Every structure is written in structure tokens, then in C-alpha cells.
Amino acid sequence: MAIDAATVRKVARLARIAEPEERIEALAQELNGIMAWIEQLAEVDTEGCEPLTSVVGSGLPMREDVVTMGGDPAKVTSNAPKSVGNFFVVPKVVE
């Protein structure tokens, strides 16, 4: 896919990037180089390669899923900035 000066002008206008007219042709050449590199990457055989989410293989520690009643309410609310009884007090956000 070849990118010409008109395409660069259109993309710059859509992205609201002000580029001087003398830079348009140079940008077109740079973008053509990037597109050629992307086309070269598309030729790489990736059959059998699993997608990566990270280059470091690490698993998350798992814990047993146990249903509880939440523990002691006094301990749960002890770190709250403000509480009344066993409830958190939060600022009113809806008028």
C-alpha cells in the first residue's frame, strides 16, 4: 500500500496535526517505509506460536475460594476514615 502526499494531508487533517507543506513528502516516505516493514512482518510464519501477554512467564498465586461472612465487622471498619456502628460513612454524591 503506497501512501501519497494527499493521504498524508488527509490523515494530518483528521488527526488535527499541523504539518508544513515541505514536510508532507518526507512524511509520506517515512510512512511508506513503515508500511513496507509491516508487510514484511506479515510474511513471517507464526503457525504454532502462542500469543504472548508478557515476555516473562509467571503464574499468579492461587488461593482456595472460600465463602465467608466477612469476618468481624469491627475489624473490617477499623481502618475506615469514618464509620457508624458496623457501617462505612461516605460523603453524599447525589443531590
Keywords:
3 helices, two-stranded antiparallel ribbon, 4% strand, mainly alpha, elongated, 95 residues
Notes on the protein architecture:
- By secondary structure, this protein is mainly alpha-helical.
- It is about 40% helix and about 5% strand.
- It is built from three helices and two strands; from the N terminus they run H-H-H-E-E.
- The chain has helices spanning about 5-15, 20-40, 75, and strands at about 85, 85-90.
- A two-stranded antiparallel ribbon has the order 1-2.
- Strand 1 and strand 2 form a beta hairpin.
- The longest helix has 22 residues, at about 20-40.
- The protein is elongated.
- The two termini are about 55 Å apart.
- The model has no long low-confidence stretch (mean pLDDT about 90).
Brief account:
It is built from three helices and two strands; from the N terminus they run αααββ. The protein is mostly helical and 95 residues long.
Ordered list of secondary-structure elements with their pairings:
Elements: H1 5-14, H2 21-42, H3 73-77, E1 83-84, E2 87-88
Helix pairs in contact: 1-2
- Distance from N terminus to C terminus (CA atoms, Å) equals 56 Å
Look at the helices and sheets and give the structural class: mainly alpha
Helix coverage percent: 25-40%
Poorly predicted sequence stretches spanning 5 or more consecutive residues: none
The proportion of strand residues reads under 5%
**Tally of alpha and pi helices:** 3
